[in-house]
């Protein structure tokens, strides 16, 4: 029987590093370094101001690293593994959920939609520039009145001669007002295949994007409302080979996979802050880390962080080997986001009043995770996806 002689490390008590390859650790470390250099010194200020002023510069820096669409092949994309992409999302969200959203929406929603469903012309026109960070994309699915039920979307596409004309609105769209291209899903009517996807250059007449203000979450992120007023597009703008919800849901599953990892990055950051604070904060003549109640909190937080990381890694290995079913992605998002939020809330109690200060990352992560909890599938929707997989019975209606 072998016994490990390694020294315990609070951020990796189960020695997860030992099952990562050297190239995987190199990807993780490279993203960690760029976040330390270009995000962490500024993100608390961005969050407080409710701005992401360096978004174009960040996109180009991430593009130069190969982070944008990194799990896609060809067209300037890096063609890396699902685990590589997951580790990148982990480090990006350890910096801030808004930064991970920038990369996730670019690569897993807008770029993946074009890569998977677009024509060769779409791919050649947009993917190389998007991979380099020279063009930014957004993904228009959610509407002001329809989030969890996109089948009833009100945005319409109609045929006018050989052209398409879009009318409607999309809400809570990351990157919306800074995007050069929008992937937009609209109801074209039963006679035209139902829900269809369109590649919409944002300089098209009738397209408008307005930033959403007064957010208390994802403040270091560009979030917009999109409107379409007689937006006329050529016939070639439509995705030719996908109809119905299969198109947008395939993209969402790609992005949700990144969230499975990213949420653990936010949790790790909050846990790290709690451990450091507990060893430095003295009460009653000793560090609060020496009290049983504090140690109980830290032990439970670490257990949930370790479990979430193991789940993310398993799903990543599975995705690389044979792909993932939607219910497997739902299990990952449901578990890891809820547990990450619990970790952040518990970390806040260890920091006491300091836990609400932007001098520490804890409340910023907790606030951000409140958005991550409900975007790209609410807790309720993912619970029902898992429930249907378990019972064979649909309970959505």
TrEMBL record:
Record-given protein name: Acyl-CoA dehydrogenase family protein
Domain Acyl-CoA oxidase/dehydrogenase middle: 138-231
Limits of the Acyl-CoA dehydrogenase/oxidase C-terminal domain: 243-390
Cofactor(s) listed: FAD
Signal sequence extent: none
Pfam families to which the protein is assigned, alphabetical: Acyl-CoA_dh_1 (PF00441), Acyl-CoA_dh_M (PF02770), Acyl-CoA_dh_N (PF02771)
Keywords linked to the UniProt accession: FAD, Flavoprotein, Oxidoreductase, Transit peptide
Annotated coiled-coil segments of the chain: none
SUPFAM superfamilies associated with the record: Acyl-CoA dehydrogenase C-terminal domain-like, Acyl-CoA dehydrogenase NM domain-like
Similarity comment: family membership: Belongs to the acyl-CoA dehydrogenase family.
Species classification: Bacteria, Bacillati, Actinomycetota, Actinomycetes, Micromonosporales
Keyword DNA-binding set for record: no
All residue ranges annotated as the Acyl-CoA dehydrogenase/oxidase N-terminal domain in the record: 21-134
Record keyword rRNA processing present: no
PANTHER family from the UniProt entry: GLUTARYL-COA DEHYDROGENASE, MITOCHONDRIAL
């Amino acid at each position: 029987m072998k016994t490990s002689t390694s020294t315990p490390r609070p951020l990796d008590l189960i020695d997860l590093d030992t099952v990562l390859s050297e190239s995987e650790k190199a990807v993780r470390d490279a993203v960690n370094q760029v976040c330390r250099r270009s995000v962490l010194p500024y993100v608390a200020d961005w969050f407080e101001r409710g701005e992401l002023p360096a978004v174009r510069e960040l996109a180009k820096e991430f593009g130069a690293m190969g982070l944008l669409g990194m799990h896609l092949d060809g067209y300037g994309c890096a063609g890396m593994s699902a685990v590589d992409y997951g580790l990148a999302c982990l480090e990006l969200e350890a910096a801030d959920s808004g930064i991970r959203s920038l990369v996730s929406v670019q690569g897993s929603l807008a770029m993946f939609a074009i890569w998977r469903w677009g024509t060769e012309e779409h791919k050649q026109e947009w993917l190389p520039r998007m991979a380099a960070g020279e063009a930014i994309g957004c993904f228009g699915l959610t509407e002001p009145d329809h989030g969890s039920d996109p089948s009833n979307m009100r945005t319409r596409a109609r045929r006018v001669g050989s052209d398409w004309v879009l009318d409607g609105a999309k809400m809570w769209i990351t990157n919306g007002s800074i995007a050069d291209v929008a992937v937009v899903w609209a109801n074209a009517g039963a006679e035209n295949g139902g829900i269809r996807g369109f590649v919409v250059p944002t300089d098209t007449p009738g397209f408008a994007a307005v930033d959403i203000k007064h957010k208390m979450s994802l403040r270091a992120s560009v979030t917009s409302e999109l409107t379409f007023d007689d937006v006329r597009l050529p016939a070639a703008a439509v995705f030719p080979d996908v109809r119905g919800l299969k198109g947008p849901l395939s993209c969402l599953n790609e992005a949700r996979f990144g969230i499975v990892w990213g949420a653990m990055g936010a949790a790790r950051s909050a846990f790290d802050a709690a451990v450091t604070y507990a060893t430095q904060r003295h009460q009653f003549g000793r560090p609060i880390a020496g009290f049983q109640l504090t140690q109980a909190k830290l032990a439970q937080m670490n257990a949930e962080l370790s479990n979430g990381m193991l789940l993310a890694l398993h799903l990543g290995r599975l995705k690389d080997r044979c792909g993932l079913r939607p219910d497997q992605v739902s299990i990952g998002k449901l578990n890891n986001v809820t547990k990450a939020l619990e970790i952040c809330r518990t970390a806040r109690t260890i920091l006491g009043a300091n836990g609400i200060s932007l001098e520490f990352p804890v409340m910023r992560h907790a606030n951000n995770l409140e958005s991550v909890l409900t975007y790209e599938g609410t807790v309720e929707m993912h619970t029902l996806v898992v429930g249907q997989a378990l019972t064979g019975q649909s309970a959505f209606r």
